[in-house]
Give the backbone structure.
Amino acid sequence: MARRQAAAARVNHPPFSRTVLDEDFMSINRNRCSWLIALCGLCLITSLAWGDDRSITPQKSNDGAKYSKDGTMLLSCPKDVKSFTIPSSVTKIGRMAFSGCGSLASITIPSSVTEIRGGAFIDCGALESITIPSSVTRIGLKAFGGCPELTVIADRGSIAWKYAELFKIPVQELDEQ
């Protein structure tokens, strides 16, 4: 483990990396990161999440979803959901929160959300488009894996736009809708 942390400390972060994963966040959370890679000029965490969402005690709500006790992180959603609106109290979509929601066709993400953790929408095969507000400044690896029909709708130049381009997900400008 110490060897990996030492190697991570030697990674030369390109200037562009600060927009996807800022160096201050990395220095604080380096011990939580599995390992780092430099990919297409971006510095990404290769684990599916920043930290471990499983250690958070979930609280159920009226919509059937589970949230962190303070209501700021969406931890999981019922697997049979077809449409879902994330409450404005949520700032983070947790790791694997919508994983396997194969019927999910529509999702509303409020501008309060700043982070979409890894694997959040993995295997949501019915999801055709997702509008990601510019408030989202961090998107985890494989957040949209297994969504073959997905088009990301975002502001040009936003983190969501760059993420979609990097992972070859079709992207459409928010104004073009």
Summary: The helical segments are 2-9, 17-20, 23-29, 159-166. Confidence is low (pLDDT under 50) at residues 1-52.
